[in-house]
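Figure 2 data, in text form.
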Amino acid sequence: MYRRATRTVLARCLADAFLAGVWNEAGLLRRGAAALEPRPRWLLPVVRAVLDGYHRSPADRPRELAAFVARAIEGARHPDVVTDPPRVRRWFTPEPAMARRRWPVPELASLGAVADFLELSDGELAWLADVRHLERSAPDERLRNYRYRVLPRGHRPPRVIESPKQRLKQAQRHVLHEILDRIPAHRHAHGFTRGRSALTNAGEHVAQEVVLRLDLEDFFASIEARRVYGIFRTAGYPEAVAHLLTALTTNVVPVTTWAALPRPREPPQITAHHRLGRRLATPHLPQGAPTSPALANLAAFGLDRRLGGLAASLGATYTRYADDLALSGGGLLHARANDVRATVTMIAAEEGFRVNEAKSALMTRAGCQRVCGIVVNDHPNVSRAEYDRLKAILHNAARSGPHNENRGGVPDFRAHLLGRIGWVESVNPARGAKLRERFARIAWE
């Protein structure tokens, strides 16, 4: 039996040779014999095994083919016959190719094509893709592609915002608009999807007997690079290109950034903190990158499909807005709510997500039913308490000046108030109009 390192080299050499020309037995034998010296006795059985396994040239999958060839070599060699391995005589250079494209994404068959697509040099592309793995360990922020901000969340693990620097952000935006925007999310996904919003998401659950709301823990951080790689492969990109695009859109948080965070003391918080730390230490979708929402939607496609089927079996409705899951329906959903919650938790785990049990809620019409912060009991609406708070702020700002009401020290308080008013207006235009009248009475310096 050849040593593993020897077998790996032989398999890579043969895979390149096989992909460098016509895909039939004569062509594979001819190039295989030209690549290795002397011609091994097991070459013909290996060629036939490859042709049985791949009826067409897997030009987009050279690594997969090399692994297949390595197994075929061991299967074709007689274990009782000990011979020296052949030597590599020639390395072929096959032309990479796209796989079948399910969506109208741009054709990028090679790393050079990606560099041209992003208008970067090879060196710039390698730097942004962090091929030297400096992001995790570099002590100097200038050697990193991200800046980090930590947002405390009370008794829950903090939210770590990973903001790409300008050059990487530009490249990610190009990937978003030219590639990811052309791949449709599931119809049940309402977040980060053109033509859908928090309002359309909530609108699916209006006037239902019961609403079951659940939350996914560490949504972006829980989506690992291998799943992102699968998305780009499914889009048709060759292995090397899919690896590069994955590197451009995933990240690993530096050790020093995570180590600087305060450690919780309560056991449940310690466990959740530890889970988040493991996720951030593994290549994952960074919360703060422009590509992450679209990739997260695509990674959750299987989850949306399965939970949509579960809801349909109960005569219920299912939607997802980012990490917020909502199911609504009638008596059957109400009667089986505990079983449904357990099933959703199981399906989410199988799809690579974890349900945050502390944030799940079952809401009946007897109380306030909210989806994405919107009240859905009878029609989409903002809560009375939220409306009254904002109305009081506007009233006091008009009476005693806006600076006295800016207790949180918001840099642009005027824009902040207009944003909150716009949100109310999008949900309830009549209430929004009343708030705008109050806003008009404020004297701004």
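Caption note: Strands lie at 36-37, 87-88, 146-153, 156-164, 210-215, 317-321, 324-329, 361-364, 370-371, 374-375.
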